[in-house]
From TrEMBL:
Signal sequence, renumbered to the chain: 1-22
Annotated organism of origin: Pomacea canaliculata
UniProt domain Alpha-N-acetylglucosaminidase N-terminal: residue ranges: 43-125
Recorded superkingdom: Eukaryota
Designated name of the protein: Alpha-N-acetylglucosaminidase
Pfam families on file: NAGLU (PF05089), NAGLU_C (PF12972), NAGLU_N (PF12971)
Keywords: Glycoprotein, Glycosidase, Hydrolase, Signal
EC number: 3.2.1.50
KW Magnesium (keyword) present: no
Family: Belongs to the glycosyl hydrolase 89 family.
Annotated catalysed reactions: Hydrolysis of terminal non-reducing N-acetyl-D-glucosamine residues in N-acetyl-alpha-D-glucosaminides
Domain (Alpha-N-acetylglucosaminidase C-terminal): residue spans on this chain: 481-694
Residues covered by the Alpha-N-acetylglucosaminidase tim-barrel domain: 139-472
GO term, biological process aspect, one: system development
Length: 783
């Protein structure tokens, strides 16, 4: 037995802290920054200069690692000689204190959508000293999908600002998956697997998240060598900056998935095919998993970590998800225990201090993952050497039904968003109470909080609120917090804007019925006859519309900044989106009544609404398809590479697969998509319904061209929002929305009174078109 394996058998000591209501795991005490205080100080000072410009000279920022209390980040604020001095236990602690001061002393904010930095001269003084200690050791960030849905085509400039945002919000345990394909390429080619064989293994640039987890293989590829090399170089800069702040990046590990050609080189290897994923065919799914007892498993796992650590350096914490949305071959507890043991021992063979961080998303499949199965996997790793991300804890916490993950440490995470969709949505009350409840849970093993959205650039208020749970010791008064948030965001407040946000809090941000994220959006989904309109609305829409009224009223009283404009466009967009439900209801009623004129009338109303939305969204840089496409194209060094990048970018946000396997899952409400994708699709749908009524033959719309899109905004957002408010606000008939729960059950295809021939045409035509997923049916083959 090797020294590494012997270490697995050693008992690991867990210290119980009764007063804190949580455990301190000595087995992960070594998961901490190795960057010197001097380097962290320099990094955080550079960040302050990027955020505040010349005013950075008014801040004295100092990292003193001895300040940490029980390994928890601590910062102290005080005014010294008219300057604001912030001393913290790490660069992250100092950055967190810096942002606290900006928000609560200077009414400033720094978010994905922009920044509102207002520094009085002189700086507001801090009375005495203000000392804050984080509630937990870790603040984790990223879903494994986030990099594909939001960061896929970022350059260093985008990453730099985002890492600043992470630091300001206290993130000290970020996922860092960029560039791993270069390491896997090096590993497999050293083992005799050709680069040509790897072309069917790696996913395309927009689909790497799912090929890394073994859900799919090769889709969106082949991955150009240019991409593999440049992502490796980018990862060096990302890791250098993360570590400079004192973050501990989570690097990838080998989870067991191998290329299809693996058995050609190793014919004696035990390899099985997993089941399909999300309707992908056997070319792109049914991936290959190396048997956990095959000696090559440990060899590959250890070699990968050694190669990666030689390239990037070591932080001792690794992510691997073997069964993410994939059903294991057996529910036998011995099989699942062998799976966990194999993955961990492979890590350990490459790094004797390895700690395995695993997403807990697989446990949402309660039909398979029952208590014995969960326990078998979790307890196959020594206590404290595996950290579980309770990925969806704000709505469906797993720790409560697994005795706090059977003793393994976990991080309470907010998932919030699926696919990077853009519906206004949140569950503020759950976020306000959930982390503190988890900390006090009987025998709690909670060691941190985390953000795990599939996509970002939406609902910024939710993330600002959640991030403060890092240092909040319990629930806060949400109304008071919102009042501060408004001032920080706009540097302005009034009764109208306060009323707007309180209405949003009581409606879109008060989800209490278990909605996952409100990602069902009628206008961005493939049109169908039996759409449940109530799935879009879990609140009184009149509150949303009145909030829209109030924001426009407030805009007349001050010079709105970029964050106010962003919110106004966002609320206008969401209000118009909800209004589309009324048009859809009338369209389907007209169809069921065989009213051709009504079908065409409401079809045109829907299309006009979508075109108006496109004009509005074009006025704000945050809502542009062109920006996503320009970022993608920028990675190509020739026409073939640019085409591949653009194909990946377009496919992910529309068909998501070769034949619409996950169609519209990652839909975006961006200018460009409305006028060239959503509007033509709805026009096609309403025209087809009208022709079915008229007994005309079925037809296909023209294939769309691939027009160019602006990557910069066009138009005045404020004027356009007012114009659309004047046009559409009278249409928000409260009576319709009060009847939503009733109407949703009646909006189905009615065949009563229709001829047999009519029903046959319907079945052959419309159902085939709506459900087959063939891209040419909605003109997407050329788009």
């Amino acid at each position: 037995m090797s020294p590494s394996e012997k270490m697995v058998c050693l008992p690991l000591i867990v210290l119980w802290l009764g007063l804190a209501g949580a455990m301190e795991f000595k087995s992960i005490a070594h998961i901490k920054s190795k960057t010197s205080d001097i380097e962290q100080t320099a990094t955080v000072r550079e960040m302050a200069a990027r955020v505040t410009g010349e005013r950075a000279k008014d801040f004295v920022l100092i990292v003193n690692s001895s300040m940490a209390i029980s390994n928890k980040d601590t910062y102290q604020l005080e005014t010294v000689d008219s300057k604001l001095q912030i001393t913290g236990s790490s660069g992250i602690a100092v950055a967190m204190g810096f942002y606290f001061y900006l928000k609560y002393y200077c009414n400033s904010q720094f978010t994905w959508g922009g920044q509102n930095i207002n520094l009085p001269d002189p700086l507001p003084a801090v009375k005495g000293t203000v000392t804050t200690t984080a509630q937990d050791r870790f603040r984790y960030y990223q879903n494994v999908c986030t990099v594909s849905y939001s960061f896929a085509f970022w350059d260093w400039e985008r990453w730099e600002r985002h890492i600043d945002w992470m630091a300001l919000n206290g993130i000290n345990l970020p996922l860092a998956f960029t560039g791993q394909e270069a390491i896997f390429q090096r590993l497999y080619m050293n083992m005799g697997i050709s680069n040509e064989d790897l072309e069917g293994f790696f996913g395309g640039p927009a689909f790497l998240a799912w090929s890394r987890m073994g859900n799919i293989q090769g889709w969106g590829g082949p991955l150009p060598q240019m991409w593999i090399t440049n992502q490796l170089l980018l990862q060096h800069r990302i890791l250098q900056r993360m570590r400079g702040f004192g973050m501990v990046p989570v690097l990838p590990a080998f989870a067991g998935h191998v290329p299809a050609s693996f058995t050609k080189v190793f014919p004696q290897a035990k390899v099985t095919r997993l089941g399909g994923w999300s309707r992908f065919n056997s070319t792109y799914s049914y991936t290959y998993l190396l048997d956990f007892n095959d000696p090559l498993f440990k060899v590959i796992g250890a070699t990968f970590i050694q190669l990666m650590n030689s390239e990037f350096g070591v932080d001792h914490i690794y992510n691997a998800d073997t069964f993410n949305e994939m059903t294991p071959a057996s529910s036998s507890t011995s099989y699942l225990a062998s799976a966990g043991e194999a993955v961990y021992k492979a890590m350990l063979a490459g790094d004797p201090d390895a700690v395995w961080l695993m997403q807990g998303w697989l446990f949402m499949d309660s039909n398979f993952w029952k208590p014995p199965q969960i326990k078998a996997l979790l307890t196959s790793v020594p206590l404290g050497r595996m950290i579980i991300l309770d990925l969806f804890a704000e709505l469906s916490p797993v720790y409560q039904r697994t005795e706090s993950f059977y003793g393994q440490p976990f991080i309470w995470c907010m998932l919030h968003n699926f696919g990077g969709t853009m519906e206004l949505y949140g569950a503020l009350d759950n976020l306000n109470n959930g982390p503190s409840v988890a900390r006090k849970f009987n025998n709690s093993t909670m060691i941190g909080t985390g953000l795990t959205p599939e996509g970002i650039f939406q609902n910024e208020v939710i993330y600002e609120f959640m991030n403060e749970n890092a240092w909040r010791d319990g629930p806060r008064d949400i109304d008071s917090w919102l009042a501060s948030y408004i001032q920080q965001r706009y540097n302005y407040t009034s009764s109208a804007v306060i009323e707007a946000w309180y209405l949003l809090k009581q409606s879109v941000y008060n989800c209490t019925d278990g909605h996952g994220d409100g990602d069902r959006v009628l206008i961005t989904e493939r049109p169908q006859l039996n759409y449940d309109v109530s799935a879009n609305v879990w609140y009184d829409p009149e509150m949303l519309f009145t909030a829209w009224d109030n924001l426009l009223e407030a805009s007349a009283d001050f010079n709105p900044n970029e964050l106010f404009i962003y919110d106004l466009v966002d609320v206008t967009r969401n209000s118009l989106q909800i209004l589309s439900l009324s048009y859809y209801s009338s369209l389907i009623k007209a169809y069921n009544a065989r009213d051709t004129v009504g079908v065409r009338e409401y079809g045109m109303k829907m299309v006009e609404l979508l075109m108006d939305m496109d004009t509005l969204l074009a006025s704000d840089k945050h809502f542009l398809l062109g920006r996503w496409l320009a970022d993608a194209a920028s990675w190509g060094t020739d026409m073939a590479e640019k085409f591949l990048m653009l194909y990946n970018a377009r496919n992910q946000i529309t068909l998501w697969g070769p034949s619409g396997e996950i169609v519209d899952y990652a839909s975006k409400q961006w200018s460009g998509l409305f006028k060239d994708y959503y509007a033509p699709r709805w026009m096609f749908f309403s025209d087809w319904l009208a022709q079915l009524i008229e007994n005309c033959s079925c037809w296909y719309c023209n294939v769309l061209n691939a027009p160019k899109y602006c990557s910069f905004s066009v138009g005045n957002s404020l004027s356009l929002a007012r114009e659309l408010h004047d046009k559409y606000r009278p249409e928000s008939r409260k009576e319709f929305f009060q009847l939503l729960p009733k109407t949703s059950t009646s909006l189905t295809f009615s065949s009563r009174g229709k001829s047999k021939a009519f029903k046959q045409r319907y079945q052959k035509g419309l159902l085939s078109m709506l459900h087959s997923g063939r891209d040419q049916e909605f003109g997407m083959s050329g788009w």
